[in-house]
Design a protein that fits this description.
The complex is a heterodimer of chains A (about 350) and B (about 160). Chain A has about 350 residues and is mainly beta. Chain A contains 3 helices and 22 strands. In chain A, strands 4-5-13-7-10 form a 5-stranded antiparallel sheet, with no helix packed on it. In chain A, strand 8 and strand 9 (about 140-145) form a beta hairpin. Chain A is globular. Chain B folds into 2 domains: about 5-70, Orthogonal Bundle (Rna Polymerase Sigma Factor, Chain: A); about 90-150, Arc Repressor Mutant, subunit A. In chain B, helix 5 packs across helix 7. Chain B starts with a helix and ends in a 6-residue tail after the last strand. Classes of the chains: A mainly beta (about 350), B mainly alpha (about 160). Chains A and B meet through strand 1, helix 1, helix 2, strand 9 and strand 10 of A and helix 1, helix 2, helix 3, helix 4 and helix 5 of B. Strand 1 (about 1-5) of chain A pairs parallel with strand 1 (about 155-160) of chain B.
Chain lengths: ~350, ~160
C-alpha cells in the first residue's frame, strides 16, 4: 500500500545540496531589477515628454516647420507595438470598455507560414487579472489570464482557405476578474470591471532587412548563458558536459561547426549582443533558426526533441538524424556585429513525459 | 513592522515549505526555486494590500504561475497515453511502486497534479483548493477524480483524508 500523502512528503524533503539561504537576496535582486526597468521606462517616457514640451516651448518657430520631429516614437496599432521581436502587427482589435467579447479577423498573406497572437487587456484595477477564453475559428484554444500570446504554424489547410479569401477568426471572451480579497483572505473571481478593455493582435514575421532595428548602443552588454532550463520528463547530462559554441571574436559572421553524438533531446540557451540570425544545420540540412532584434542581450531558450523532432513548419528535405549517430552541427550567423554564443545541454527523454 | 521587513521575514521563515510545493509541481529543484522566486517577486507588488496571512496568496500565485508556464510553452499539455501499472502489494516491490507512482504523478496534466499536491501535501480542503487555483469546487472534484483514475491508485493507494 502506498500513502500518497506520505509519498509527497517524502519526495519533497529538501536535499542538503539545495541552497536556500540566498533566496531573499535573489528575490530582492529580481525586485530591484524590475523596479529599475519600470523606473527606466518611466524615466524615458518623462524624458520624451520633457523633450517634446521643451521643443514646443523653446522653439516656437519650429512648430510650423515642415521637418519631422527628431524624437521617434515607436508606432503602435491599437495599443500594440507595430514591430516586436521580428514581427509586424498586421491585424489588431480592442473593445470598448466593458464589452466582453472581442472578434479579430485576419486574412494571412500568401507567403505567411507562421503567425504570432498577442493578448493584452487593460483596466484601472491593479493586482488582479482579467480572465478570458480564446477560440480560433470557433474551436477552443486556451483559457486563463489575459496577457502574453503564442506562435503557431499556418498549416496547408489554413493557407488554402486563406488563398480562397477565407480569414482566420479569433474570439476572446472575458469571463471575469480575479483578485485577492485581503479582508476575507481569499482570492475571488468577480465580475468584469466596467472599464475593462480586451485587446488582441496578430503579427507576421518580417524579413531581417525590412525590420526597423533600434540604434546600436555605445557599449554592448556582456553575454550570459546562465538560464534555468524548464523541462519535465527529461534527464539532463551534468552542466559540466554541456557543449558551447561561441562566435569568432575576430569575425562574428563566421560559421562554426561542432561534432555531436546525437542525443534524444537538447535544450539550448542562446545569447547575442546584437541583432542577428543563427541558422542551425545538421549534416548540411538547415532545420532551425534563432533571431535577435535588439541590443538587450536577451536569452533564447529552445528545445530540440531530436527523438521525434518535427520542425514547425515542416522543412522539405530535412531528415532527422537517428539518436546515437555522429552529426556535424553547423551554426551559421547572419547580420551580427557583436558576439553570440550557444549552449547545448543533452538530455534523455522519459517515456510518456508531460 | 515595515512591509519590507514582513516580506523578508516571510521569505526567510515561510518559503521553504512553498519550495517543497513548487518541487512537487515541477519535479525539479532548479525549476522549483525559479518558480518560487518568480511567485515571491509577483507577491511583493501586492504585499501592502495583504492584511491576512500572506501564504494563501503566495500559494495562489505559485500555482497559477505554474499553470501559466505550461500555457506559454510551445510544447503545451501532453498527457501520457499509457498509464502505469497499479503498484504491487508485495513489500519488496514497494520501493519500485513508489517510484512508479512518483513518475506517474509527473505525467499527470498540470492542473490535475496541482489538485493532488494541494490536497495531499498542503492538506487543503476542496474549497481552499478551488480558491487557490481560481476554479470552482466542481472543477476541483472532477480534476481530482480524473487524476486518481489516471494513477489507477484505487486499490494500491491509501486515500488518507479523502477529498472532502
Amino acid at each position: 500500500m502506498i500513502d500518497l500523502k506520505d509519498l509527497l512528503d517524502d519526495r519533497s524533503t529538501t536535499p542538503p545540496e539545495v541552497s536556500q539561504h540566498l533566496r531573499l537576496d535573489q528575490v530582492q535582486g529580481r525586485i530591484a531589477v524590475r523596479r529599475r526597468r519600470r523606473t527606466t521606462a518611466a524615466g524615458a517616457l518623462a524624458a520624451l515628454i520633457a523633450l517634446v514640451v521643451v521643443g514646443y516651448t523653446v522653439a516656437p518657430g519650429l512648430r510650423a516647420a515642415p521637418e519631422p520631429a527628431v524624437t521617434r516614437i515607436p508606432p503602435t496599432v491599437k495599443g500594440f507595438p507595430k514591430y516586436n521581436f521580428g514581427t509586424k502587427v498586421v491585424a489588431a482589435e480592442r473593445t470598448a470598455p466593458g464589452v466582453t467579447t472581442l472578434t479579430l479577423t485576419w486574412l494571412p498573406a500568401p507567403t505567411v507560414t507562421t503567425y504570432t497572437v498577442i493578448e493584452k487587456c487593460w483596466t484601472a484595477l491593479n493586482g488582479g487579472t482579467i480572465e478570458v477564453d480564446i477560440k480560433v475559428n470557433g474551436g477552443p484554444r486556451l483559457g486563463g489570464s489575459c496577457g502574453g500570446g503564442w506562435t503557431s504554424a499556418l498549416d496547408e489547410q489554413a493557407r488554402a482557405r486563406a488563398a480562397r479569401g477565407e480569414p482566420i477568426v479569433f474570439t476572446m471572451t472575458a469571463t471575469g476578474y480575479g483578485d485577492y480579497d485581503s479582508t476575507a483572505g481569499e482570492w475571488r473571481t468577480g465580475p468584469l470591471p466596467a472599464d475593462a478593455v480586451l485587446g488582441m493582435a496578430v503579427a507576421e514575421p518580417v524579413p531581417f532587412a525590412d525590420y526597423p532595428l533600434p540604434s546600436r548602443p555605445e557599449r554592448l552588454k556582456p553575454l550570459d548563458l546562465r538560464e534555468v532550463i524548464v523541462n519535465e520528463g527529461i534527464t539532463y547530462a551534468p552542466i559540466s558536459e554541456a557543449v558551447e559554441v561561441h562566435s569568432d571574436p575576430a569575425d562574428p559572421s563566421r560559421p562554426q561547426r561542432i561534432t555531436l553524438l546525437w542525443q534524444d533531446h537538447y535544450s539550448l540557451v542562446m545569447a547575442a549582443q546584437t541583432p542577428g540570425v543563427l541558422t542551425f544545420a545538421a549534416d548540411g540540412s538547415d532545420f532551425d533558426t534563432a533571431s535577435w532584434w535588439s541590443y538587450e542581450g536577451g536569452h533564447i531558450v529552445r528545445d530540440w526533441d531530436t527523438a521525434d523532432y518535427q520542425p514547425l513548419p515542416p522543412i522539405p528535405g530535412f531528415v532527422r538524424p537517428p539518436a546515437g549517430t555522429v552529426v556535424t552541427l553547423t551554426v551559421t550567423p547572419q547580420h551580427f556585429t557583436g558576439a553570440w554564443a550557444v549552449r547545448l545541454v543533452a538530455g534523455k527523454e522519459t517515456p510518456g513525459r508531460s | 513592522m515595515a512591509h519590507a521587513d514582513t516580506f523578508a521575514e516571510f521569505v526567510t521563515t515561510r518559503s521553504s515549505r512553498l519550495l517543497r510545493t513548487a518541487y512537487l509541481l515541477t519535479h525539479d529543484w532548479g525549476q522549483a526555486e525559479d518558480l518560487l522566486q518568480t511567485s515571491l517577486v509577483k507577491a511583493w507588488s501586492a504585499w501592502r494590500r495583504i492584511e491576512a496571512d500572506p501564504e494563501p496568496y503566495v500559494r495562489r500565485i505559485l500555482v497559477n504561475t505554474y499553470a501559466t508556464w505550461w500555457r506559454r510553452r510551445w510544447r503545451g499539455e501532453q498527457p501520457a497515453e499509457r498509464l502505469p501499472e497499479p503498484a504491487g502489494s508485495e513489500p519488496h516491490l514497494d520501493v519500485d511502486a513508489r517510484d512508479e507512482v512518483w513518475r506517474a504523478l509527473g505525467r499527470l496534466p498540470r492542473r490535475q497534479r496541482a489538485v493532488l499536491v494541494l490536497r495531499y501535501f498542503e492538506d487543503l480542503s476542496e474549497t481552499q483548493i478551488a480558491e487557490a487555483m481560481g476554479v470552482s469546487v466542481g472543477t476541483v472534484k472532477s480534476q481530482a477524480a480524473k487524476a486518481l483514475a489516471r494513477l489507477r491508485l484505487d486499490e494500491s493507494l491509501t486515500l488518507e483524508g479523502a477529498l472532502r
